[in-house]
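Entry: HlyD family secretion protein
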Amino acid sequence: MSRHAWVSLRWLPLAAMLVLLAACVEHDPVALGTLEWDRISVPAPAAETIVALQVREGQRVRAGAALLQLEPTRTAAQLQALQAQAQQAGEALQELRNGPRSEDIAQAQATLGASRAQAADASAYYARLQPLGRQRLVAAADVDRARAAAGNAQGAVRAAEQALLALQHGTRVEQVAQGEAALQAAQAQAAAQAVTLRKLDLLAPRDGLVDALPYKLGDQPPVGAPLVVMLVGERPYARVYLPQALRLQVRVGQAAHIQLQGRDGTLSGRVRSIRSDPGFTPYYALSGGDAARLSWLAEIELSADNDPARMANLPAGMPLQVRF
């Protein structure tokens, strides 16, 4: 046997092992990612100063537990102003429903009587001036002024008659409807402000872990700023990046095995979602030729069959590998 043939036979077992390893890798794909918890944030309902902190980062809280408190003085004053506006709108509506007072009707009747007397006087004066004007004993301008005064007086009588009729007929249905709408709007604004006032005492919306308190005592965060960030849920999930070669092999509902870096054993789970739009593989998920390929973000939900005590203490952000 030649030396060249002997060397070839010597490396034959190693070559076979490499082939088997490549086959195992091909049939046992791996996706890289991190362990995550569902995150929720409690936003600031108003731009007020933080006056009390009842929790600390890393503390577990139950739903409804007090988290922090914002200064309520200004919001309470705004609520009182809106409640006063709602009361004013209610009184105005009641006035519309009651209609005009008897004193207002009597005043309109008196105004009508005075207008009729003035109209009668103006008409009589005009009647006396007409023959004198035909005889040219008075100037034509005086006759014209008397005629205009009589016409104005008759117009004032008709206006007074219509004003009296309006009072006698009462408030229109449309006016009452407008008053009801104004009252409802004022009450809704007051109710919304009351909700904002209650929200100044921030409560935990769910059971969970206080992950972050971005603002400290004495800060005045803007409206909508996250005051408390919480990790919630019964168990964490794996967020991994599927390379292009692995995307066709993985589907929603498929079983998966999660290996946490630095921990023995695996956790079972199932794929719950896969993003439809690909992105570039992040640096911590690069593996060989996958560095230049697109990847699809997927979430693997851990099964309830795993040890609950073990899953409850798993920290977010832990690197992991997922095999399908």
